[in-house]
Design a protein that fits this description.
This protein is α/β, with parallel strands linked by helices and 305 residues long. The protein has a single domain, classed as Divalent-metal-dependent TIM barrel enzymes (TIM Barrel, Alpha-Beta Barrel), CATH 3.20.20.150. It is built from 12 helices and 10 strands. The protein has an 8-stranded parallel β-barrel, surrounded by 5 helices. It has a two-stranded antiparallel ribbon with strand order 8-9. Strand 3, helix 4 and strand 4 form a beta-alpha-beta unit. Helix 2 packs across helix 4. The protein is globular, with a radius of gyration of 19 Å. It starts with a strand and ends in a 6-residue tail after the last helix.
């Protein structure tokens, strides 16, 4: 698995981008996932930074993480999408992350669901025309807040260029088993976000209004293997996936220390299970084989109708 750091981690830090890149290289990461706001500003103020410059460090930008509009004027949505694609091309980013609206799937009518899926499909088509893939993130309070609604979104959008940014914690938050969910969505997954929380009761710490606030609480944000979601089985299940890419999405304090330790912990577990899935993970994988096959089959043809 290729691992990247997210520049959103440093949203409230006074750091040069070159400092982040140099640290990322020294600590063995493969890339830098650029927050859309950072990508735009860097392109304007430091045009010398780009894919060639980053490649000189042995790094790449696998994905831009942004928030494309899904309502409003169609011409404006198209204009903003094309602008973002050009920024992604500057960084040679192959993927753009966005969200499927801002309402829980359970609160959307069939007509709203169909309309939103259609708009996302149209945006994905524009992105694909630029040689990039649009990934919708699995996230609460969106149309992709559980596996079934995500599969319905993908079917209704009917756009081959549309994929999923699989945020493992948010899938778990939505009530789905991440191992089962990953297998159900496997053909659509283009990237993974990895993070954890101390307890399910503290998931609110990741609410956007808290995360983006400089004065927001970070209590409950914990290193990857110290939280309530079980990552050993999930990462073991990824062992058969070649070329997967993931980002450590850390929002808490001690950014550099936590990211470095989490990367080493992932590497250590990967080496210890290389070629062999641990007994617990093996049982889980065997359990999912038949269950997921029937689940995916039952979801085929589902749409927002």
């Amino acid at each position: 698995m290729k691992l990247s750091v997210c520049t959103i981690t440093f949203r409230h830090h006074l750091l040069c981008f070159s400092e982040i890149v140099e640290w990322t290289q020294r600590n063995g990461f493969d890339g830098v996932e650029l927050w859309g706001a950072h990508a735009r500003n860097l392109m304007q103020t430091h045009p010398e930074y780009g894919s060639d410059w980053l490649r000189s460090y042995g790094l790449s930008v696998p994905m831009l993480s942004d928030y494309l509009p899904t309502d409003g004027d169609v011409a404006d949505i198209r204009h903003r999408t094309i602008q973002l694609c050009r920024i992604a091309q500057h960084w040679s980013a192959r993927k753009i992350r966005t969200f499927a609206g801002n309402k829980p799937s359970a609160e959307l009518s069939r007509e709203e669901c169909r309309a939103l899926a259609g708009r996302i499909g149209a945006i994905a088509g524009i992105v694909q025309d630029h040689g990039i893939r649009l990934l919708v993130e699995t996230h609460p309070n969106t149309l992709a807040d559980n596996v079934e609604s995500t599969l319905r979104l993908l079917a209704a959008a009917d756009q081959p260029g549309l994929g999923i940014n699989f945020d493992a914690l948010h899938v778990w938050e939505g009530g789905d088993d991440p191992v089962l969910a990953r297998r159900a969505l496997a053909e659509f997954i283009g990237h993974y976000h990895l993070k954890n929380v101390r307890s399910r009761t503290e998931l609110g710490v990741f609410a956007p209004e808290n995360v983006y606030s400089a004065a927001g609480s970070r209590d409950g944000m914990v290193p990857l293997f110290d939280g309530a979601m079980e990552y050993d089985c999930f990462l073991a299940a990824l062992a058969d996936e070649c070329g997967s890419e993931a980002s450590l999405e850390w929002f808490g304090h001690d950014c550099f220390g936590t990211l470095a330790r989490d990367r080493l912990a992932i590497l250590s577990r990967s080496m210890s299970t290389r070629g062999v899935v641990g007994s617990t993970g093996a049982q889980q994988v065997r359990l999912t084989e038949s269950r997921v096959a029937s689940r995916v089959a039952s979801s085929k043809g589902h749409s927002c109708t």
